[in-house]
C-alpha cells in the first residue's frame, strides 16, 4: 500500500473512532454535557485531528445523528423489505421504527438532542431523508391499491411519524417491561383503523 493509501486508512480510522466515541458520550451524557476534549480523549486523538474532520461540536453531532438515523432507517427498511405484501411492509416497518427508537442511545441522540441541537427544520430534513420517505412510499402504494382510502399521504405520514416518535420518547421514560408490548399493540390497532372497510 502506498503512503497515500495508508494516510487515507488512518484518516478513516480516526473519523470512525471520533464518531464512535462521540456517539457513546452523547448517548450517555447528552449533547450539552459533552465537550470536545472528552471526545478526543476517549478516541485517543488530538483536537487537531478532530478539527480535520469536523469544524465544530455541532458538526460532529450532526455526523453522529446522521449515522444513527441511517441505522434506524436501515433497520426499518430491512424489516419492511422482508414482506411482499405492502400492508405487512407498513406494519413491520412501523413496529421496527418503534422498537429501534426506544434504544436509549437512539432516543437521546435522535429524538431528544437532535431537534434541540440542529433545530426542528434541519432535524426534520435529516429524518425525512433517513426513514420517513419509506413510510410515505408504502402509504402511497396502499392508497393506490385501495387498501387505505384515497387521501393526501403527506399529512398522514407526518401524523404517524410524530405519533411513533412521541411513543418512543414515552417508552424511554417508563419502567414497565409491558409498556413496549402494549405500545406495539396500540400501534397495530391504530394502523388497522386506516384500512378501507
UniProtKB/TrEMBL annotation:
The HTH tetR-type domain, residue ranges: 12-72
Query: Which domain of life does the UniProt lineage start with?
Result: Bacteria
Keyword vocabulary terms for this entry: DNA-binding, Transcription, Transcription regulation
As recorded in UniProt, coiled-coil segments are: none
InterPro entries per the record?
Homeodomain-like_sf, HTH-type_TetR-like_transc_reg, HTH_TetR, Rv0078-like_C
Annotated DNA-binding residue span(s)? 35-54
Pfam families (alphabetical): TetR_C_41, TetR_N
Report if keyword Transcription is assigned: yes
State the Gene Ontology terms under molecular function. DNA-binding transcription factor activity; transcription cis-regulatory region binding
* This protein's name: TetR family transcriptional regulator
What organism is the protein native to?
Answer: Streptomyces marincola
Amino acid at each position: 500500500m502506498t503512503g497515500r493509501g495508508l494516510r487515507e486508512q488512518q484518516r478513516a480510522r480516526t473519523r470512525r473512532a471520533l464518531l464512535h466515541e462521540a456517539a457513546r458520550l452523547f448517548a450517555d451524557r447528552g449533547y450539552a454535557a459533552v465537550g470536545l476534549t472528552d471526545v478526543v480523549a476517549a478516541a485517543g486523538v488530538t483536537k487537531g485531528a478532530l478539527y480535520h474532520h469536523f469544524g465544530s461540536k455541532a458538526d460532529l453531532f450532526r455526523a453522529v445523528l446522521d449515522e444513527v438515523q441511517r441505522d434506524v432507517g436501515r433497520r426499518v427498511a430491512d424489516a419492511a423489505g422482508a414482506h411482499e405484501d405492502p400492508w405487512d411492509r407498513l406494519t413491520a416497518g412501523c413496529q421496527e421504527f418503534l422498537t429501534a427508537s426506544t434504544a436509549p442511545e437512539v432516543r437521546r441522540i435522535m429524538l431528544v438532542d437532535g431537534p434541540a441541537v440542529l433545530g426542528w427544520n434541519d432535524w426534520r430534513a435529516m429524518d425525512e431523508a433517513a426513514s420517513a420517505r419509506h413510510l410515505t412510499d408504502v402509504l402511497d402504494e396502499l392508497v393506490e391499491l385501495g387498501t387505505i382510502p384515497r387521501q393526501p399521504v403527506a399529512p398522514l405520514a407526518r401524523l404517524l411519524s410524530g405519533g411513533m416518535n412521541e411513543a418512543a420518547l414515552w417508552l424511554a421514560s417508563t419502567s414497565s417491561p409491558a409498556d413496549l408490548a402494549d405500545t406495539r399493540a396500540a400501534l397495530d390497532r391504530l394502523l388497522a383503523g386506516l384500512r378501507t372497510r
